[in-house]
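Async update (no meeting this week)

Hi team, since we skipped the sync, here's where things stand on the single-chain job. The sequence we agreed to prioritize is pasted below, unchanged from the tracker. I ran it this morning and attached the output directly underneath so nobody has to dig for it. Comments welcome in thread, and please keep replies under the output.
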Amino acid sequence: MSGFPGYPFASHWFERDGHRLHYVDEGTGPPVLFLHGNPSWSYMWRYPVLALRDRFRCIAPDHIGMGLSDKPDEDGYAWTLASRVDDLDALTGHLIAAGAPERGWTLAMHDWGGPIGMAWAARHPERVARLVVLNTAAFPNPHGDRVRPPLRPPFWMLRETALGERLFLRHNAFARLATLPPLGVRRPMPRAVRAAYLAPTAEPGNRIAVRRFVQDVPLRPGDPAWPVLHGAAEALEWFAHLPVLIGWGLRDVVFDRAILDEWCRRFPGARACVYPDAGHYMLEDTGYRFLTELHAFMSGRR
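Output:
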């Protein structure tokens, strides 16, 4: 059992290329794969896992460098979108070899979980039965290669400058700000919950993945992650016939209404649950409102 509030899960480990990847594996039944983004970890999925584990097998990995997974140094890991997809492919392949079903997977994605998850799904479209989409993207930015004006200066400072590196590595600024109103949430997290979000990046040496995720954001052709993102976007049409649930915090300062509209355009049959009072970490802001929708969707009542 962990010491994190609301996260009473046993730890499981998968070793790949000398690094241990941590994951939650709770319940039995059809598998649900929960994919977090940056700068969060599997802790963000604690409520959905608790809500669904009586009927589903809930699997929530921590990306390498995040959460309870190993934290390699700068040269110890590739730190690319492609490497994240390879990690996920290796983990799911391991689980299937150990008895998990090859088909019938629900893919739940938030933030970077979207491009990672949909790129994995593009490799194995026959495995995916449902999609749950929470404040993420798996296609090029509808705004083009522009970062929205309020975010442009801090984004480029964090991504490109020595000051940004100091803020990331010395002060943990990105993770700290992401757990505060108004950038990550609209209402303050309880102190213990915020501490749990921040625990994996408490030490400067554990913050490399946070910055490298920001540096890997694909804005235009030529960026290293662009081919993977573009391939995932092209494959989205293969999944348009599936049940899709969208949960969206409209007060997200990064994943805005234009990105939500693009999801709805690509999946016109999706059920969209939109929350004007929720931010990027919409699960923290919506509580049981979205969990009720998720439970109904997974039960086939939506």
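Quick observations from my side:
The beta strands are 12-16, 19-26, 31-35, 57-61, 105-111, 128-136, 244-249, 271-275.
The radius of gyration is 18 Å.
Reply here if anything looks off.
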